[in-house]
Amino acid sequence: MKIIALLALSLCIQGIFLVTLEEVLPNLQVLEKYIKEYKTAKKSRVALDHLVLGYVRSEKYNSMAFDYACGSIPKDLVSFIANKDKEKGTKAQQCRKYGEIVLPSKEKMKFAHMFVTMNGIENKKSFTGGFSILTGWGGDTIQLANDIKNSNGDLNTLILEASKFVGKKGKFVESSLISDLDAPIIYKKKTSSNNFHDIIKSYYTGTEWKNRYKNFVKITFPGATKENLREVLYKKLIGDSWIKMFIGRRGLSGHKTHVRAAAYAFADYLAKRL
To answer: CA-CA distance, 25 to 30, in Å (whole number)?
Structure first.
C-alpha cells in the first residue's frame, strides 16, 4: 500500500493527474455569472470581456508589464469573486489557478496562457498588432530563440535546432503553442451576446479545433501562403516595437540569426499543417 501511495504522489508531482476541460468549464460559467453581478453591483463601466480575461490571467500573469500590455482589473474584483464562492459554495476563483489542462482531444493547453493572449488582443482590439504579438505567439517565439541562443551554426543549422523545440520542449511546448494558436480563434468569436464558456465548450467538444493551424494563420497573417509564411511571420515579429523591447530584455540583441531561426522554425511548423 505504501508503494502504491508513493507512486500516486509521484505521478501527481509530475503533473500526470491534470485537470480536464470538463472540470474547468462549470467554474468558468459561474465566474462569468459573478463578474456580471460585479458589474451591476459596482456600476462598473469596464468591459465584461476585459474583466473576465483579466481576472483569469491575473494570478499567473500579474507583473506591471502584463498589466500594461493587457490592462489592469479593479483591485476589488478578486475579493468579490472569493466572497461569492464562500457565500455560494462555488469554485469560480479556481479559474485563476489552472495551469495545464487536458482537452477532449487529449492535448494539453495552458489555460491562463490562452486568457492572457486573448487579453492582449482585447486590450488593443487587434489580432495582428499591438500587444497580441507580445502576449501570444511572438513572445513565445522569442522564448524559443532564447532556448537556442547558446547553439552555434549557420541559419539552417539553427532552424533545425529550433525545430526540435517547437511543440515539444522548452518554453514553446505543445500546451503553450495550442494556447497561442487557439486564443485569436476563440476571441474572434466573442460578441456582446455570448460568453467564453459556451465558445470554448463548442470549440473543443466539436471539430473546429482540427483546423486551428489554418484559422490561426488566416487571422494572424492575412494573405500569407505556405511559400511566404516564413518571411511574413518574421517581418511581423521583428517589426513589432514591443517584441524589439522583449528581444533586448532577453539579451538577444546580438543573436539576430537565432531570432530568425526561431521564427522560421515556427513558420515551418505551421506551414506543414496548413
So the answer is: 9
